[in-house]
Structures are given as C-alpha cells and as structure tokens.
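Hi Prof. W.,

I finally got the Probable GTP-binding protein EngB prediction working! I wasn't sure whether to trim anything, so I left the full sequence exactly as given:
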Amino acid sequence: LDYRSIEFLTSAPTLTECPEDFGAEVAFAGRSNAGKSSAINALTGNNKLARTSKTPGRTQLINFFRISEQQRLVDLPGYGYAKVARSMKDEWQRHLATYLEKRGCLRGLVLLMDIRQPLKEFDLHMLTWAVEAGLPVHILLTKADKMKNGPASNTRFAVEKALKEQGLNRGVTLQTFSSTKKSGLDKLERRLNEWLAE
Ligand code: GDP
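And this is what came out:
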C-alpha cells in the first residue's frame, strides 16, 4: 500500500459522526508526547496530516485519513492531556471506548509508547481491552534513537516478557521505532499491509 498518497478525510467527535463503517481501518493510539504525530509523518511523508490532528480543539477528535476507497488510518487523540478537565477526559474515554468496541472495520491497533517509559497505566488499559476484544495490537517503542541499540533491544525484550507474564501477549507484536532516524518503518508498513489487505 502507498502510505504517501494518504489524505485527510474527516474528524469526528463521536462514533455517530465517523465515516461509514466499511472497508478496513487501523487506529493509532498513544499517550500524548509518545511520538504519534511524528510516526504518522514519517509513514506518510506528510507533515500537514498530523498537524491537522494537533490543531487546538481538534485534539479530542478522531481523525480519519484515507489511503484508498476501502482503507483508512485513524489517529486517536493522545490520552493523558493534563490540561483537559476531568469530566472531559471521562467523556472522551467513553467515546474512545465506543469507537474501539463498535467499529466493525477496525483491523488493528498501533500503540505507541516512548521507549524510555513503556507500559504506563493507560497503555495497559488499552492492551487489556484489545486483547480481551481479540483486536491485534502492534506496539511501537518510539524514540529508539534516544537509546543505544543494546539497551533498546533489552527494553523490547523486557516489555515482551512483561506482557507475557500479564497474559497480554495474544495477538500483540512489537518493534523499536524512530521517526527521527526513520528506523522501523518497513516493519510497521508490513504490519499495516497485513491488516489492511482485502
Ligand atoms: P504526539 O503527542 O504523540 O503526537 O508526539 P509528537 O510526535 O508530537 O512528539 C513529541 C515529542 O517527541 C516532540 O518533541 C518530537 O520531536 C519528539 N519525537 C517524536 N518522535 C521522535 C523520535 O523518533 N526521536 C526523537 N529523538 N524524538 C522524537
């Protein structure tokens, strides 16, 4: 698939406003600052896309990007915004949960975690939910360039081990990734292609 010809499709504040539920979709999620916008930029070569997602007021929306008529990438808002009021967070989490539970065309979830602080509470929530729902997850340990190769792969093994111990490894794959160095892009594309293939 050609991720370079991707286009912004629409933003939806709630599930009812999402595009029609057909074809295949892969969603990207991560705590804010995990490197989600940078990863989407690196994948698509389009700096405007993720900036769209970051426009203030739009951060709480689900953003849809069109790869083809039948295939989409979805940018879920970063969670963990300190400045968002508690009530808004709760409301947002309900919308997110509804999207994840009800979206029939959702084929997989890319979960981004800063390699220096993996498996935070919300990551575990997302993983638990996805594994229980039978939704495959591909974890990107982002900003891998911040570590030497040895420690980076040690972290990958440690995360793998922790997931196994917690029974959260079913359907879960993981890799190190760096948007800055553009490393790990091939692997990510292969996973996306598998999920989005008709
Ligand atoms: P988002 O909030 O998840 O969309 O995160 P961003 O993509 O905006 O990245 C948050 C911060 O981390 C920014 O300052 C980025 O420049 C930085 N960053 C993102 N990806 C990388 C990476 O691969 N390597 C390094 N060194 N920094 C990164």
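The chain has one domain: 3-196. Does that look reasonable to you?

Thanks,
D.
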